[in-house]
Amino acid sequence: MSETRTTADFWFDPLCPWAWMTSRWMLEVQKVRPVDVRWHVMSLAVLNENKLDEVPEEYREALATTAWHPVRVAVAAEQLHGPEVLGRLYTAMGTRFHNEGQGPTREAIAAALADAGLPAELLEYAEKDTYDAELRASHKEGIDRVGQDVGTPVISVPGPDGTEVAFFGPVVTPAPKGEAAARLWDGTLLVASTPGFYEIKRTRTSGPVFD
């Protein structure tokens, strides 16, 4: 494979277990391919705010309330401490939310900030709209690249002619490791570079495996 380094832009909402699985795969890809990941925040709350009546009832209240908390804290951290903190804060949040089963509680967010070496005061932004404009701008950048009919994650990579090609997913569980991660990345780049390619999909028969 070429050793030319590739930058992959990755948009995530810390709430989504499937985005979490994909992000762990991307960290593995960085070990086995010349790839650098740039992390960005998107929001399931923003994505669904105008169609809550279409969302299953068990998710509706969370999307209107607590779903804002992790992304607001993440964007505040990015704005106040630089984009380089997003990767480690996402890892800290996702480990507690998903692997450890704590969910996106205020306690889990506070502990994740400590794990990531970030100030505890950032938790104050969970219920503030201080950086909502920046959150929406980041979300819009990802969605504008891939289109409206997707969720999280969104990954954007350079296409064969230098233009950006964005896609949703890949949705995978458990996160591939080693050469399996490399093969999936190579295949992802291949289909992303194919003009007119849009989708491969099958019914999920397994939930996320957090290993």
UniProtKB/TrEMBL annotation:
<dbReference type="InterPro" id="IPR053977">
    <property type="entry name" value="Rv2466c-like"/>
</dbReference>
<dbReference type="Pfam" id="PF22234">
    <property type="entry name" value="Rv2466c-like"/>
</dbReference>
<protein>
    <submittedName>
        <fullName>DsbA family protein</fullName>
    </submittedName>
</protein>
<dbReference type="InterPro" id="IPR036249">
    <property type="entry name" value="Thioredoxin-like_sf"/>
</dbReference>
